[in-house]
Design a protein that fits this description.
It is a single chain. By secondary structure, the chain is α+β, with helices and mostly antiparallel strands. It has one domain: Conserved Hypothetical Protein Mth637, Chain: A (2-Layer Sandwich). Helices cover 23% and strands 36% of the residues. The chain contains two helices and six strands; from the N terminus they run ββββαββα. It has helices at 46-59, 86-93, and strands at residues 4-6, 10-18, 25-30, 33-37, 66-70, 76-82. Strands 1, 2, 3, 4, 5 and 6 form a six-stranded mixed beta sheet that branches. The radius of gyration is 12 Å and the shape is globular. The mean pLDDT is 94.
């Protein structure tokens, strides 16, 4: 599964966001990316903040454990989550 890469202390996720959705939520793995719907518009970083908050809630970690490494101005991003293993992320995504 290419959607995630594990480092020694974190997991990196390839994410694709869908903006201006009715509700912010994790949609699941689509191809080689995690698909996330966001209610926010891409104005003044609001969508990026909402993405991090949505992922933090989904994975059950504090917001401070997540950061966008690549793609801050793109629909495709790489998000890093500290403190979780690849197995924990897969389990919370419901994928093998």
């Amino acid at each position: 599964m290419r959607v995630l890469t594990e480092t020694s202390s974190s997991v990196r996720l390839d994410v694709e966001v869908k903006l201006r959705a009715g509700k912010s939520r994790v949609l699941g793995v689509k191809g080689e990316r995690l698909s996330v719907a966001l209610a926010a518009a891409p104005v003044d970083g609001a969508a990026n903040q909402e993405l991090l908050e949505t992922l933090a809630e989904h994975f059950g970690v504090p917001r401070r454990q997540l950061r966008i490494l690549l793609g801050a101005k793109s629909r495709r991003k790489v998000v890093e989550i500290d403190g979780l293993s690849a197995e924990e992320v897969r389990a919370r995504l419901g994928v093998p």
